[in-house]
Amino acid sequence: MPADAPRSAEALVEAARRRRRLERALPWLVIAGMFVAWEILVRALSIQPFILPAPTLIAESMGKWWQPLLTNAWATLVTTVIGFLMAVVFGLALGVAIGSSVLVYRGLYPLLIAFNSVPKVAVVPILVIWFGAGFWPAVLTAFLISFFPIVVNVATGIATVEPELRDVLRALGAKPRDIITKVGLPRAMPYFFASLKVAITVAFVGSIISETVAANEGIGHLMLVASSRFDVPLVFAGLIVTGVMGVAMYWVAVTIEERTTGWATRGQNDPRLATGG
């Protein structure tokens, strides 16, 4: 082995570490660059605050209205998380049923597609009639809008188990339940967590849609009141707070995914494989 081989390996590892440090810092650099460019654009073009407020003006509004923002953000977060957790439970159960049974798939999938095609904002008035304005319409809208991605991904993960593998397991005496629990569900976990990262972001969309239609609290309600007063900086402050909550929940889903299904992406965490373009 050449004498410089250990040095080359160490250089590759060090390059991989530098790349990972850049990857961790890159999102923050991009966000900071976006706000700087935004500020420069607004000032250079003299855009009025009621059209597009500068980030400094939005930050000033956030400082001024921090308490209503915090209170309403908490209300939105609670309704979103509850609706999302309901979607996880029911979506996982229905996804397993659809992915493991052709009859269930044939019977329910067209109905699910049709229901998912209905704009959820059109469902909110019905939910208000049934449950009244406020908490439950927001929860159920978050549930309805985040339910479908989970069902589809879990069903796909279970249904794509190779037929040859199923035949071998049956020949070895495995029951259909054993195939689902010991092969199908582990196989579906990467699909499941991929759906969670989509579902948690759209769940906020559902909550805020309901809050803008029929609620007396929440970020959607706050933005509606602010827009009626033409307080555009506060509207943008609500958008930024919602984005921060969405990123935080996405990070929670990614952290759980890394701790439970790290085997599915173990090659990506090897520093010796992280030096490519």
What does this structure look like?
Helix 2 packs across helix 10 (232-260) and helix 5 (120-131) crosses helix 6 (135-159). 28% of the residues are buried. The model is unreliable at 270-277 (pLDDT under 50). The chain has 277 residues and is an all-alpha fold. The chain has a single domain, classed as MetI-like (MetI-like fold), CATH 1.10.3720.10. It has helices at residues 5-45, 55-64, 66-100, 102-117, 120-131, 135-159, 163-171, 176-213, 219-228, 232-260. Keywords: Cell membrane, Membrane, Transmembrane, Transmembrane helix, Transport. Its main location: membrane. It is a multi-pass membrane protein. Belongs to the binding-protein-dependent transport system permease family. The chain crosses the membrane at residues 26-52, 72-96, 108-133, 139-161, 191-214, 234-256.
Q: What is the CATH class designation?
A: Mainly Alpha
| DSSP strand content | under 5%
pLDDT average, as an integer? 84
- CATH architecture classification: Orthogonal Bundle
Unreliable stretches? 270-277
User: Total strand count, please?
Assistant: 0
Please bin the fraction of helical residues: over 70%
Largest sheet: none
Please give the count of helices.
10
Q: Which word captures the global form?
A: flat
Class by alpha and beta content: mainly alpha
- What's the CATH topology label? MetI-like fold
CATH-assigned homologous superfamily: MetI-like
SSE string: HHHHHHHHHH
Q: How many structural domains?
A: 1
Query: Cα-atom Rg, whole angstroms?
Result: 24 Å
How far apart the termini lie comes to 27 Å
